[in-house]
């Protein structure tokens, strides 16, 4: 899984009044950087080792998707609430608690002998990461009393976040190259423990409870809506789209989404201000964030399956493409900042989403037997450049069209809907690819020159675990007989997934062109925009 190397925080808290003495600036910045680096490592960690995880635990396609989304869901839906919790009860407590919970999650993952245990560990680590993102940012804003110090602190924070995204695939690939995938989680768990200890020793407590309150009805309903929606999407290919659990999950998702709208309408302090969506340009920006980030992360998940599961590449070799994608944005960030000033977010978003769509289609055209980096370099670089343009401009597009007093909420809302889009990426791509691959394999196995016993064995594994399980099962001579069919079906299925992600990126580009325009125009960066890197 690939995530943004430039995580936009859900909110940028003001330093505000604090009930604690001034913190030590250097210690605060060091701890905040360590924490956000840890959180971002967790987001990107499975990218290079999805194939090893699948082969080690013999997971089904649905289970492999859940392993990624179990981390992404809490990171997406809990960050706003944890930001309020830190302001109310203390950022240091939140950061230490988040790091310790992440460590527990990584311990569970590192000792897992089943997909269910690994999914549980990922969920716990994701909850911890959801606390680390806002807590680390708020500690910097609270611990840097001057504009110059705050600018340096925020620059360090975003640099550490980008570093976490860059080193995660390298760390997991290098560790798993010589040992079990479990050691990648174990090493990250040690880093989480170090983060908790250093935070406890080097930082003082701070809080800003004035005017802050929790929106539990909104938080609970949006979490249930997303979980039930994902359950239906992910389990649909396995359980059947007309099965009672899948249909019930979609009904529950619709009901919970309706309850969320009602809760936010009535809340005195909503986590999501629905009136923002009455501004057409802001609503368009939110739609771009959901659709476009689904396209980007769905394509990245598709690439991880191609490398690790279909091609059986080693973890270290599978890490290299993600290093290329993640390394582009930090490298070109000064140029992106100047473009944002000179041409504005509209042209950048149109160009960025178009580049992402072209990268997905280019990757689709690369034959699956091409395993070297040279064949993939073009789409990888185009993907990285497109994503850099999008991540630089997406928040600016939202905050530039709302009244000044709502820019903070607009930035937070954009981050929330973008994270939701990223969470849907693996789910929808996996559902489309696996459903198509299963249908194709069912027909291929009937026509394959197999004995009745061999056909029965292959069909039983396909029905129980899906195409991925059949492709990686050790069936002796039978594996060699069915390998061409499973590889072709999975390649076709995930290539169709790339068509879906490319179409999503094109749709986002069209929305940007219609509502934000393609003509360059000057724009001034607000403090919030300037802090995204």
Description:
The chain is mostly helical and 533 residues long. 78% of the residues lie in helices and 0% in strands. It has 18 helices and no strands. Helix 11 (280-310) runs parallel beside helix 13 (345-365). It is globular, with a radius of gyration of 23 Å. The two termini are 20 Å apart.
* SS-based class: mainly alpha
Runs in which pLDDT lies below 50 for 5 or more consecutive residues are 3-23, 522-533
Helix fraction bin: over 70%
Based on Cα principal axes, name the global outline.
globular
Order of helices and strands: HHHHHHHHHHHHHHHHHH
Taking the alpha carbons of the first and last residues, their distance comes to 20 Å
Mean of all residue-level pLDDT scores: 85
Give me the Rg, rounded: 23 Å
Q: What's the total count of β strands?
A: 0
Please work out how many helical segments DSSP would assign: 18
Strand content: under 5%
Q: Give the biggest beta sheet.
A: none
């Amino acid at each position: 899984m690939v995530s943004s190397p430039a995580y936009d925080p859900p909110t940028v808290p003001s330093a505000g009044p604090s009930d604690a003495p001034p913190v030590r600036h250097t210690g605060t910045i060091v701890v905040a950087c360590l924490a956000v680096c840890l959180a971002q490592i967790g987001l990107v960690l499975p990218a290079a080792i999805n194939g090893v995880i699948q082969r080690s635990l013999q997971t089904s396609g649905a289970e492999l998707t859940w392993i990624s989304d179990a981390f992404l869901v809490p990171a997406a839906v809990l960050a706003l609430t944890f930001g309020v919790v830190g302001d109310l009860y203390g950022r240091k407590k939140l950061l230490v608690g988040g790091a310790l919970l992440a460590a527990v999650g990584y311990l569970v993952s590192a000792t897992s002998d089943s997909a269910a245990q690994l999914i549980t560990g990922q969920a716990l680590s994701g909850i911890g990461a959801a606390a680390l993102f806002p807590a680390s940012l708020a500690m910097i804003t609270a611990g840097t009393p001057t504009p110059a110090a705050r600018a340096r602190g925020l620059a360090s924070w975003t640099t550490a976040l980008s570093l976490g995204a860059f080193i995660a695939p390298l760390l997991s690939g290098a560790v798993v190259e010589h040992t079990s995938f479990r050691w990648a989680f174990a090493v990250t768990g040690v880093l989480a423990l170090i983060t908790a200890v250093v935070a406890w020793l080097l930082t003082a407590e701070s809080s800003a409870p004035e005017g802050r309150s929790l929106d539990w009805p909104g938080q609970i309903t949006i979490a249930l809506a997303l979980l039930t929606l994902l359950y239906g999407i992910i389990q649909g290919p396995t359980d059947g789209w007309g099965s009672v659990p899948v249909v019930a999950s979609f009904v529950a998702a619709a009901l919970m989404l309706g309850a969320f709208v009602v809760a936010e309408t009535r809340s005195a302090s909503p986590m999501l201000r629905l009136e923002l969506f009455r501004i057409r340009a802001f609503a368009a920006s939110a739609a771009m964030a959901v659709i476009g980030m689904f396209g980007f992360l769905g394509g990245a998940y598709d690439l991880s399956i191609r490398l690790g599961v279909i091609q059986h590449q080693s973890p270290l070799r599978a890490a290299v493409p993600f290093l290329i994608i993640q390394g582009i944005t930090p490298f070109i960030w000064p140029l992106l900042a100047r473009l944002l000033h000179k041409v504005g977010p509209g042209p950048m978003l149109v160009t960025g989403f178009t580049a992402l769509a072209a990268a997905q289609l280019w990757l689709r055209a690369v034959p699956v037997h091409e395993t070297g980096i040279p064949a993939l370099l073009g789409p990888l670089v185009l993907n990285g450049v497109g994503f850099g343009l999008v991540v630089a401009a997406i928040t600016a597009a939202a905050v530039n069209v709302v009244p000044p007093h709502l820019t903070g909420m607009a930035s937070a809302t954009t981050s929330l809907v973008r994270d939701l889009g990223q969470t849907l990426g693996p789910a929808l791509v996996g559902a489309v690819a696996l459903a198509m691959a299963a249908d194709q394999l069912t027909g291929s196995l009937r026509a394959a020159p197999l004995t009745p016993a061999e056909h029965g064995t292959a069909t039983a594994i396909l029905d129980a675990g899906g195409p991925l399980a059949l492709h990686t099962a050790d069936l002796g001579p039978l594996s060699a007989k069915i390998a061409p069919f499973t590889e072709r079906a999975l390649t076709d299925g995930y290539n169709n997934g790339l068509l879906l992600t490319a179409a999503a990126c094109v749709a986002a580009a069209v929305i940007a062109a219609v509502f934000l325009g393609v003509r360059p125009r000057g724009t001034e960066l607000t403090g919030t925009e300037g802090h995204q890197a």
